Amino acid sequence: MAVTDFFAGEIATELLKMLISITRKACLCKPSAEQLLHTINELLPIINEIKYSGVELPAIRQHQLDTISRALHDGYELAGKVLNSSRWNVYKNLQLSRKMDKVEKKISRFLQGPLQAHVLADVHHLMFDSNERFDRIEGSNRRLEQRLGSMIIDGGGDRWWAEEPMKIDDDELFELVKVGMELGKRKVKDMILDRDDLVVIGINGIGGSGKTTLAREICRDDDVRSYYNNKILFLTVSQSPNVEQLRQRIRDFLSECIIGYNNWNTVTPTLVVLDDVWSEPVLKQLILKVPGCKTLVVSRMKFSSLVLNSTYELELLREEDAISLFCHTAFGRTSIPPGADVDLIKQVVEKCKGLPLALKVIGAALRDQPEKYWEGAKKRLSRAIPICDSHETELLNRMKLSIDYLSEKVRNCFLDLGSFPEDKKIPLDILINIWTELHDIDEEEAFAILVELSNKNLLTLVNDSRAGDKYSSCYDISVSQHDVLRDLAIHMSSSLESVNQRKRMLMARREDGIPKEWQRNTETPFLARIVSIHTGEMREMDWSKMEFPKAEVLILNFDSTDYFLPHFIENMPKLRALVLINYSTKTAELHNLSVLGTLGNLRSLWLEKVTIPQLPTKAILPLANLHKISLLLCKINLHDQSEVDLSHLFPRLTELTMDHCIDMTILPSSICQVKTLKILNITNCESLEELPFDFGKLIFLQILRVYACPKLKMLPFGIKNLIWLEHIDISQCVNLHCLNEEIGACLSLKEIDMRECPQIKRLPKSLTVLRSLARVICDEELSWQWKELEQVLPGLCVQVAEQYFDLDWLTE
């Protein structure tokens, strides 16, 4: 009996302790809720500012921010329930407490994990932006010194120009024309700040007139930012918008602004800017009537007064401002140079009709040209008789002058740019692939053409800080283009009457299916060398039967989570480059992959934001001429891939890129079978933990990039077999703890890039035998060890990467 009482007493005591613990946890529920509310109110405005700053984010970062935003919303609602719950309802409070623990852990995981990767990425971009700005300032100072010291304007002979002509960018363009836009800025500011009766305001003007520049300057204005407390959302709509996605972004922005203001009963001033709107029905769907919210609509179109409360029509530049902008582009100064033909310059400027973009492009085309060239240009501009009453059509005909004077090869490369959707950055690697296949040029000449087009203001280069090095990748550079220049490329490519005879078949905007003009002519083969299609979801029945006997490049742009590859690919015997880009927010399932087995001449394959299934080896014949595969933002099915003989499927594959494949934890070992590989890029794969143990089978590998893989802890031991390896990039692998001792066997190694690798503390002794090593890029902490090796390796140059913040906190 005593024993029974003893155990019963012990059990009762334990139960009492448990009850006290539960009660204490329930009682602490409300203070925890108050603390959670405080944390959310601090975090949510910051997340909101990042998401809606007007900066286009990569899809993965946008997804992560959306996820944490939802978690913060859930936490906000949960904390409200806790504060409203009765303190005596212990069971309910215990449940709420457990939910709060989950929310806090979710937020904590984000702060300690992805957020640190975001910081690294942002610092990387800031480094590039800062370098670019300082380079620009340094270049401007250098040019100014040269002008002050040796300004020579030659008025005699066949040529007249200002020495060292300056390149103009969008910021400088606005500085030059802002006097002409000041009136418009003041009027639009009055509408969005002082007129409570105006809720939807428009900025209207033809393409290239500076509408977007004006809208961005208004958003940057101190008075506007102060009035709206930085709650400004800038969205580009374009001709082919994903309306539901845009609506969701606006809804999220407005709801977070209200929560961030911390008072549901207070009207929160917010501004939504919708740029490049083409359709009134689309515009109506994007206008959300929320108290305190104003919408600024930027468009070439004049929308009805039923939609817009007021519209400012952007005026073109006055003669004085137009001459200043033109002279800045053509001569590197803001006035007509002495000794120049004033009348001729004014006549050319007059033909540009005061349009900033036309002045910029035509001025660049005439830069450094002889006077007779200018006379011919003036006559050609004068003959640009409009096809219709549209000023914009006349503008395209006039701007065509700058393209006509390009060499045939450069002109064709410019026209190829019309193959890509508007308002999207074009990866340079795609352009290089297309140009090398279509125009019989090598990569170096293609890059030179790119620079020439950039210097003539026909495109804009957006490059990474790595770009320009011998071993830099074309993935580090992208290209953007004003939509009027894109329209010009499409206008010139579509000038022939018969669609079957065109060299380029391009879709100006996204459509539900194949254009009717194409469908009406399917009985006759299409002779285009490049075909670009932009649609939404496509099923098997949505494709028409077409033949493309001369097509060498096929670009499939789509916005869908399901996509059926067209059967007419089988009728493209000369196809050499295939590009599939999914612009949806989610990855797409591809169907009819077996059609790729018919492409015996295919040399380049680019897949973006699609799911890569297990390869149907029996259905796909070996792609004997495929040299390059690029997989970006793809989900890769790793199950049973080791059984696939990739060396049989791709017997000549020399370059493989896998970028932002975030679900990939290990590189498929089947890749090591492809012994023909010379370049392997595994970049920004945040889940990658290891490389295959038989990595050393890639004996002909020359370039290895595994940068920005934060979970990778070590390189494979098989690296010692890579005797032809010349370049290795392990930068931003923040958990890589060492360079393998085996790296000393890579006797051909010429360059190592290991910036931002804080875990690597010591260098292997085997490095002393790398007599070919010529360049190392590293952080300051390791630089002294490398500089000691300079005595043993006399040809070695150690470059210290600029450090903008301390990475020691990553080790915690």
Automatic annotation (TrEMBL):
It comes from the Eukaryota. InterPro entries: Apaf_helical, LRR_dom_sf, NB-ARC, P-loop_NTPase, Powdery_mildew-R_dom, WH-like_DNA-bd_sf. GO terms for biological process: defense response. Keywords: Leucine-rich repeat, Plant defense, Repeat. GO terms for molecular function: ADP binding. Gene3D superfamilies: Helical domain of apoptotic protease-activating factors, P-loop containing nucleotide triphosphate hydrolases, Ribonuclease Inhibitor, Winged helix-like DNA-binding domain superfamily/Winged helix DNA-binding domain. Residues 1-149 form the RPW8 domain. PROSITE patterns: RPW8 (PS51153). Belongs to the disease resistance NB-LRR family. This is RPW8 domain-containing protein. It comes from Deinandra increscens subsp. villosa.
